[in-house]
Amino acid sequence: MAYYKRIRDLREDHDLTQAQVAEYLSMKQPQYNRYERGLRDIPSDILIALAKLYNTSTDYILGLKDN
Asked: What DSSP element (H or E) covers 25?
């Protein structure tokens, strides 16, 4: 599974909007949308912040682990 699908699924599982996640990451919603659509690679600092937000590992987000 591609990372962009995982971050979308995690966001939806936590009942968050793209705007809410973008605000948490201190960015604008269109920029975050590009990560979810796979149009831009996620920088490591954003990846770590998402892992903390969703209480999961970066390996899970990147598809290296399934739990």
From this structure: none
- Whose tokens are 């971050």? That residue is 7
Residue with tokens 């920088």, as numbered in its chain: 43
Contact between residue 60 and residue 67 where contact means Cβ atoms under 8 Å apart:
yes
The CATH number given to 3-62 is 1.10.260.40
What is the tens place of the pLDDT at every residue in 43-58?
999 999 999 999 999 9
Q: Which residue has the tokens 């962009």?
A: 4
Q: Are the C-beta atoms of residues 37 and 4 closer than 8 Å to each other?
A: yes
Q: Domain locations in the chain? A: 3-62
pTM value > 0.70 = yes
Q: What mean pLDDT is reported for the chain?
A: 95
How far apart CA 32 and CA 8 sit, in angstroms, is: 10
pLDDT grade, residue 67 (50/70/90)? confident
